[in-house]
Amino acid sequence: MNLSTLLAGVCLMVAGGSAALAFSRRPAWAGGLAAGAAVIGCGLGLVPCVGVLLGSPVEVLRLPWSVPIGRFTVGLDALSAFFFWPSCR
């Protein structure tokens, strides 16, 4: 269970919303794109959440960043997985 899967799910949901906005003149396409991206994105996001809630160790993703002070760090512990769970149901 990889934290990059969670970030991919979130990015997919954002991309689906952006695509729906771009296709706003065709409501059927916009709704289909948004719904499809939401379902797939939430499915991807739930995989690491379920793992952490079932007892897997805390997951941390650290990526290099061009900001002088540090790097991009995202973590998923049991508390954050608990609060992320309802957003993907």
Tell me about the biggest sheet? 2 strands, antiparallel
Give the end-to-end Cα distance, rounded to a whole number of Å: 19 Å
| Strand ordering within the main sheet | 1-2
| β-sheet strand percentage | 5-15%
| Helical amount | 55-70%
Describe this structure in words.
This protein is α+β, with helices and mostly antiparallel strands. It has one domain. Helices cover 61% and strands 13% of the residues. It is built from three helices and two strands. Strands 1-2 form a two-stranded antiparallel sheet. α1 packs antiparallel against α2 and α2 runs antiparallel to α3. The longest helix has 27 residues. The two termini are 19 Å apart. The model has no long low-confidence stretch (mean pLDDT 88).
Topology:
Layout: H1 3-22, H2 27-53, E1 59-64, E2 71-76, H3 78-84
Antiparallel strand pairs: 1-2
Helix pairs in contact: 1-2, 2-3
Short description:
The chain is of the alpha+beta class and 89 residues long. It is built from three helices and two strands.
